[in-house]
Amino acid sequence: MLKNKSRCHVIYGILTLCIGVLLMLYASSVPSNTAKQPPFQTSSLSQSFSQHSTTILNGKLKTQHPRILLPELADLSTTGRLELFQQRYRQYQQKSITAYPRPCNQPQLSALTVCWLTTNNPHTLKLALETLLNLPLEQPNASGRYGNGWQLAFNYDLLASSSKLTSKLHLQSLLVDYLKLLDESSATLWHGRLSLASNAWLCAAMLDIRSEKQRQLIIRAQHYFLQAAQSVAITDGLARRI
Fold it and tell me: How far apart (Å, rounded) are the C-alpha atoms in residues 125 and 54?
């Protein structure tokens, strides 16, 4: 049982790192003369590691949503987004695929978010926003509880494209909790500090870079994530040499 739990923590740490790395690439610098911005900028990770700072943001955080999952949707109108999903459903039917999720029959936050995304139903959006803003914050700690920052970030990201989501104080509050833990040294690197830093960076990437207070939180979160990613890269290199 203990071994299975440890294995789950390791997998969770790896997954959150991968998501964080993708998001870090997504926030990397983009040439100003680029006509159409790609979802992810494939700059050198090693270069980013050497430049991470506690006072300067490495790269440029995009202003449109979604920023993490399905960033291509940011370039589509509501009609274009709905047609994209309808096209996918038609492909399922053509291939006789019936075992796919039907989120509109579920009361969970993520299901409500996906239901609105694929139907644009205003009542579903209202329910999703109410559920999100009333979602209890799971306080993280340094001994195995990593909070629900990733869940908040993913749903904030998708619902923010509705223009009805105007407050991010809920998310900002949880980010501050992550940063307080990362300011200390009690969390271990593997599936500890790594998971906390990844959750913090996902939360931070949802904030408004134009707000000076939020900008400072974003910079701190990026610093800790890059620091954790660099440490993991170093330990992985050492492990391969043994």
Answer: 37
